[in-house]
Amino acid sequence: QVQLVESGGGWVQPGGSLRLSCAASGFTFSAYWMYWVRQAPGKARELVATISAGGGTIHANAVKGRFTISRDNAKNTLYLRMNSLQPEDTAVYYCAAHSGMLNEGNISPDYWGQGTQVTVSS
After folding, report:
1. Which of 6, 2, 51 is nearest to 27 (CA)?
2. Cα–Cα nearest to 89, from 58, 59, 51
3. What's the confidence (pLDDT) of residue 70?
4. pLDDT in tens, 52-63
5. Which single residue of 32, 50, 69, 122 could bond 97 by disulfide (Cβ 3.0 to 4.6 Å)?
6. 79 - beta bridge partners?
7. 61 in the Ramachandran plot: left (φ > 0), alpha (ψ -120 to 50) or beta?
């Protein structure tokens, strides 16, 4: 019943931009903290960005100044605007929902999206 459906992934050249979207349903979106998590091949999951139920945001140092997380509660949609993309940003990107703050040492949200591939290469 709960769904997090992602879109917007794809291939882009270094320096390019993408916007990821995550459409949520089956739970009270506005009451949840929302997250973007990524995983590159052979690497651990990495917490990319957080947005609280109240709208406060946190971005990982690796993406700070380049990525922006946002949410539209009226549309039950989470966004990740990614600018100045670099090859090291290549990963599967997941949206996730949790009832509160997530422990980045043990990333276990209440709900996961299916993931969308972002590939940055020449």
Report:
1. 2
2. 59
3. 98
4. 999 999 999 999
5. 32
6. 21, 70
7. alpha
Backbone angles phi, psi at 29, to 5 degrees: -55, -45
Which tokens is 88 given? 């090291």
Dig out the tokens for 82 from the structure. 């990614």
Q: Which two tokens stand for residue 31?
A: 């009451």
Which position has the token pair 């993406």?
A: 63
Q: How far apart are CA 44 and CA 104, in angstroms?
A: 11
Residues in the chain: 122
Backbone angles phi, psi at 40, to 5 degrees: -90, 155
CA–CA distance, 95 with 102 (Å, rounded to integer): 13
